Amino acid sequence: MATLGVIKAEAQSVGLHLLAVGAAVPGEAVTNDDMAEIVDTSDKWITSRTGIKTRYFCRGERNVDLAYRAALDALVHAGIRAEQVGVLIVTTFTPDQMSPSVACALRARLNLPEDTVVFDLNAACAGFLYGLQTARQLLLASARPYALIVGSETISRVLDFTDRSTCVLFGDGAGAAVAELSTASPFYWLGGSREDAAGFLYCSGLWDKASSGAPSVVHMQGQEVFRFAVDIIPHCIDELLQKANLKLNDIDYVVCHQANMRIISHVVKRLHARPEQFFVNLQRYGNTSSASIPLALNDMRRQQKLKSGSRIICIGFGAGFTWAACLLTW
Ligand code: UT7
Question: Of 2, 32, 134, 256, which residue is the least packed, with the fewest Cβ within 10 Å?
C-alpha cells in the first residue's frame, strides 16, 4: 500500500491547466477627473502615485451579475458544456449578501449540475490564486473534468467616498477561468498570511457594526501595505523559481495583483528584471482585489500574449496580510 507521502507526491505532480479566461466590468469608465469632482484629488496625483487612469463602478449591477458575465465569457472561450463543470468557486470580499454565497446564485444562473461543489472564498486580493489551488485539489476528487474560478468584486459598495486616500484606488470587475487537471502543465503554488495586528488594511463588517455602528468600508494605511507588497512579491518569485528550478528569464510574464504601478516598478528594479515581462493593466481598472489577476490574464489573451506553453507567474497580496503566488504553464 502507498504511504501518505507517496500519495501526496503523486497528487502534487498533477498540474492545473487554464483552458480559457473571461472578464466583465460594469457601466462606463470613471476617470480621475470624475473622481476629482467627488473628493479633493487630481489626475496628476492619482497618475503619478498609482498609475491609475480609470476604474469602473457598479450602478445597478450586483456582484453575481458581473460574475455571471465573466463566467459565461470564459465558458464560451473554453468551448465546454455546463454539465462538465464539477467545481465552482467565487473569490470575493464583497459578496451581495453574507449568505447564501454568490457561487450558489451563479451555479443556478449558469445551469451547472446541482451536485457541483460551490462556495465563496475570501482571501482578499490573493483570493483568485487561493481559488486556483483549491479548485485543483477539489478536481482531484471530482467526477467531472472542469472547474470554474471567478474573482468578482463590487468594491464601490464598501468605499468611503469622503476618503480620498482610498476611494480613488479601487474599482469593480470580475474575471474568470476554466481549469482542468493536467500532467503536462506543471503548477507550483505557495501562499500564507502575516498578521496585520495594527489594522493597516481591512474592511469592517458585522463586529464593527454591532459594537460601534460603523459602516462597512475599506480602511488602508497605504505606505504599510506598500512595504508589505514590495517585500512579499520578490520573495514569492524567488521561491517559485526555486521550486520549479527555473530562472526569471525562463518566465514569459509576471502578473502581480494590480494595485499600484510604483509597487511593480519597485519590484522590477529590485530583481533587475525586464519591465515588459511584468504585465500591467491597472491604468484601466484600478485595484479590483481578487478580480485583478483574471482581468489581467483576460487582457493578455485579448492582446494575444498568451501562447501555448507560456510560463506565467501570478502573485496576489492584500488584507490579512494574505498572499499567494503560482507558476503556471498556459
Ligand atoms: O489591494 C491591496 C493592496 N494595496 C496596495 O498595494 C496599496 C499600496 N500603497 C499605495 O499604493 C500607496 O501608499 C498609495 C497610493 C495608497 C498612497 O501613496 P503614498 O505615496 O504612500 O501617499 P501618502 O499616503 O503618503 O500621502 C501623501 C500625501 C498626503 O498629503 P500630506 O499629508 O503629505 O499633505 C495625503 O493626504 O498625499 C495626500 N493624498 C492625496 N492627495 C490627492 C492621499 N490621497 C490623495 C488623493 N489625492 N487621492
Answer: 2
pTM here is: 0.96
Cell of 125: 486580493
- Say which residues have a Cβ less than 8 Å from residue 296's Cβ, sequence separation at least 6: 175, 255, 258, 279, 281
pLDDT tens-digit series, residues 147-166: 999 999 999 999 999 999 99
Instruction: Among 38, 41, 45, 49, name the best residue to mutate to test ligand 1's pocket (greatest count of ligand atoms within 8 A of Cβ).
Output: 49
Rounded Cα–Cα distance for residues 115 and 118 (Å): 9
How many angstroms is it from 330 CA to the middle of ligand 1? 36
Return phi, psi of residue 53, to 5°.
-115, -40
For 235-247, how does the pLDDT look when each residue is reduced to its tens digit (9 = 90+)? 999 999 999 999 9
Spatial contact of 313 and 240, defined as CB atoms under 8 Å apart: yes
Cα separation values, 242 from 149, 189, 298, Å: 27, 12, 27
Q: How many CB atoms lie within 10 A of CB 185?
A: 18
